[in-house]
């Protein structure tokens, strides 16, 4: 089998590996789609890695091998994967929050081999059957990017009466715009890229705003929202300016959520205390939430495939990440022939 190794400093290698052999409670999956996630860029751009692992953490595919303790009916099933491996025994693992395992979790593409490969070997506990009608591309997106957006919107308890400002319209942000619109909420999309703002309109944004082109982002958002702040806000870009602004655009009793990695913020508590706001973070999603998101996408006819602007074969890895590194396009994935 082949897999893409991240060496850091924007260096990749398509390397050969022995085909994996499953343990007693593991399965081998032939990867049909492996999404490219913005968090991959932290490793791709980062310092040199002496002992790299196969990158990628958004897999979907077909089970082609199973260990001795795996029911044989799993063979041949189309599945998606929750990409964290925990102890399976602590309270967090048992509730589906494997990434918060009290005994330490491993993450595909970071501390364990990932999905940018022909084959992957994962614990059966991480695997979910794909609902009928869900594509491999959509299942891959739900494994992290779209799933992260879903987890944040659920943390915010978003509903159809809300107006939400979504900062950043990259793959996670545009997925949040698409899902929030499907939930009935009104979306104000913010990004400094005209191309990404145009895509957000296509996915249902009621209004779009380039924060670099206005003197005051909070004032501009209020002008778009009838003079009031928004009831909900979400930060997906990792930019510190956006991480501050998600608090500033809120109305009284509003709620803000951060999912973007890399920002640093500080604020005067009294500026927000007297407005009774709620602020929270969100880290991907649980196994039950992943299943819920997949059902929602199928039942509501959400076209997750449409967020993908680029599809690559695994042997195009160098070019694929050169393009993805520019962060001007939409979602991308490696797909099998």
Give a brief description.
By secondary structure, the protein is of the alpha/beta class. It contains eleven helices and 17 strands. The two termini are 14 Å apart.
Q: So, CATH architecture of the largest domain? A: Alpha-Beta Complex
CATH superfamily of the largest domain: Medium-chain alcohol dehydrogenases, catalytic domain
CATH topology of the largest domain: Quinone Oxidoreductase, Chain A, domain 1
Strand content: 25-35%
Taken in chain order, the helices and strands follow as EEEHEEEHEEEHHEHEHEHEHEHEHEHE
Label the structural class: alpha/beta
Which descriptor suits the 3D outline? globular
- Runs with pLDDT <50, length 5+? none
Number-wise, the strands total 17
Query: How confident overall, as mean pLDDT?
Result: 96
* Number of structurally distinct domains: 2
What is the CATH class designation of the largest domain? Alpha Beta
Distance between the termini: 14 Å
Describe this structure in words.
The chain has about 325 residues and is α/β, with parallel strands linked by helices. Helix content is about 30%, strand content about 25%. The protein has eleven helices and 17 strands. Helix 3 crosses helix 4 (about 145-155) and helix 4 packs across helix 5 (about 170-180). The longest helix has 14 residues, at about 285-300. The mean pLDDT is about 95.
What is the secondary structure topology, with strand pairs?
Blueprint: E1 2-8, E2 11-16, E3 26-36, H1 40-45, E4 59-66, E5 78-81, E6 84-85, H2 91-94, E7 106-107, E8 119-123, E9 127-129, H3 136-142, H4 145-155, E10 163-167, H5 171-182, E11 186-190, H6 194-202, E12 207-209, H7 217-224, E13 230-235, H8 240-248, E14 250-258, H9 269-273, E15 278-281, H10 287-300, E16 308-312, H11 317-324, E17 331-335
Parallel strand pairs: 10-11, 10-13, 11-12, 13-14, 14-15, 16-17
Antiparallel strand pairs: 1-2, 3-4, 3-8, 3-17, 4-5, 5-9, 6-7
């Amino acid at each position: 089998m082949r897999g893409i190794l991240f060496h850091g400093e924007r260096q990749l290698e398509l390397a050969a590996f022995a085909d994996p052999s499953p343990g007693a409670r593991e399965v081998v999956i032939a990867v049909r789609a492996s999404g490219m996630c913005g968090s991959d860029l932290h490793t791709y751009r980062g310092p040199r890695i002496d002992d790299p692992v196969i990158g990628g953490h958004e897999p979907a595919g077909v089970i082609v091998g199973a260990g001795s303790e795996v029911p044989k009916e799993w063979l041949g099933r189309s599945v998606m994967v929750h990409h964290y491996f925990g102890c399976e025994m602590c309270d967090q693992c048992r509730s589906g929050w494997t990434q918060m395992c009290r005994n330490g979790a491993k993450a595909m593409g970071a501390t364990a081999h990932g999905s940018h490969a022909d084959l992957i070997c994962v614990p059966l506990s991480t695997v979910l059957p794909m609902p009928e009608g869900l594509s491999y591309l959509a299942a891959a997106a739900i494994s992290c990017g779209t799933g992260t957006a879903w987890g944040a919107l659920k943390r915010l308890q978003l509903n159809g009466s809300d107006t939400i400002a979504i900062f950043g319209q990259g793959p996670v942000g545009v997925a949040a715009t698409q899902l929030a619109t499907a939930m009935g909420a009104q979306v104000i999309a913010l990004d400094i890229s005209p191309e990404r703002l145009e895509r957000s309109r296509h996915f249902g944004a009621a209004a779009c705003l380039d924060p670099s082109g206005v003197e005051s982002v909070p004032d501009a958002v209020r002008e778009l929202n009838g003079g009031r702040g928004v009831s909900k806000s979400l930060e997906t870009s990792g930019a510190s300016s956006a991480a501050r602004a998600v608090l500033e655009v809120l109305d009284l009793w509003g709620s803000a959520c951060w999912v973007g990695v890399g920002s640093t913020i500080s604020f005067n508590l009294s500026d927000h205390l007297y407005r009774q706001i709620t602020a929270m973070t969100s880290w991907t999603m649980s196994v039950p939430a992943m299943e819920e998101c997949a059902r929602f996408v199928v039942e509501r006819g959400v076209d997750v495939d449409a967020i993908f602007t680029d599809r690559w074969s695994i042997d195009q890895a160098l070019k694929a990440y050169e393009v993805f590194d520019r962060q001007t396009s939409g979602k991308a994935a490696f797909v099998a022939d």
